[in-house]
Specification:
48% of the residues lie in helices and 14% in strands. With 294 residues, the chain is of the alpha/beta class. The protein has a six-stranded parallel β-sheet with strand order 3-2-1-4-5-6, sandwiched between helices. The longest helix is centred in the middle third of the chain and has 29 residues. The chain binds nicotinamide-adenine-dinucleotide.
Length: 294
Amino acid sequence: MTTIAFIGLGHMGLPMARNLLKAGFNLQVFDLVQRAMDELAAEGAQAASIALEAVQGAQVVISMLPASRHVEGLYLGADGLLAALKPGTLVLECSTIAPEVARSVHAAAHERGIELLDAPVSGGTAGAAAGTLTFMIGGQPETLAKAQLFFQAMGKNIFHAGPEGAGQVAKVCNNQVLAVQMIATAEAMAMGVANGLEPAVLAEIMRQSSGGNWTLEKYNPWPGVMENAPASKGYSGGFMAELMAKDLGLAQQAAQSSGSSTPMGALALQLYRLLLKQGKGKQDFSVVQQLFVE
Ligand code: NAD
């Protein structure tokens, strides 16, 4: 049976790893935080005390870390995993990171005969728990063919975006749209309520009208409109505002390198930076709602 090493058991990694366990794979896990490892160990995974231990005997390595520097730290350099993995190991790097960092990790993996895909995801913590994530994949099609069954255990839509780094480019484009939609929805909700509308009524009208979008469908930022949305749980859980600010920064870098004009993305980044300055970086990104209410 295939043994998978899963590294990074945060908001996304924990439910993704759980779905691999449910699909019957052997799972060896590592996170800097003990609690998530304990939860998975109780469900049948083996917890490791360092990343190198987690990858022992694994044919597949999956990582789900916060940002570029964590991924570089895990894989590159003399102490990095790539120096220790056997040639032929399959690595699925699912974090959202800079496309150029993804390309440098690809190059280092290629030198060692390790097959790697950049495979960032969309769908949020609910999609991770339900096993319905969208994967946006960069790398060789033959590698993707070998990885299909692992992606299918965690997701529903599996897209080959293009060569090395292409998954990350698709991801930052998508998250720029998501941030802009979230901000536009939050300011409209605040304006409607300030002008006397019931939040749930306004949300439903917009959802069914031409303003309808993903945030109105699944993730309304106004507290109490959607029972399971982070907004109704004190903006806890979900996707941290500081991670959205990171993704918007990556989108601006991508725009800079191609000379693209992205004024909406630039404004979204500025608004998320304001939120971080207000100490709200650890809250869900729908907390942007609070910029628009008294
Ligand atoms: P998170 O901060 O909840 O989880 C990251 C985990 O990585 C933490 O548990 C942390 O302890 C662990 N970690 C950090 N460095 C490590 C290391 N060197 N070794 C082992 N573990 C380490 O973040 P998240 O919300 O799970 O997001 C993970 C990635 O997925 C990010 O790149 C994010 O942008 C992306 N993403 C998140 C969402 C979402 O809704 N939360 C959706 C899509 C994509």
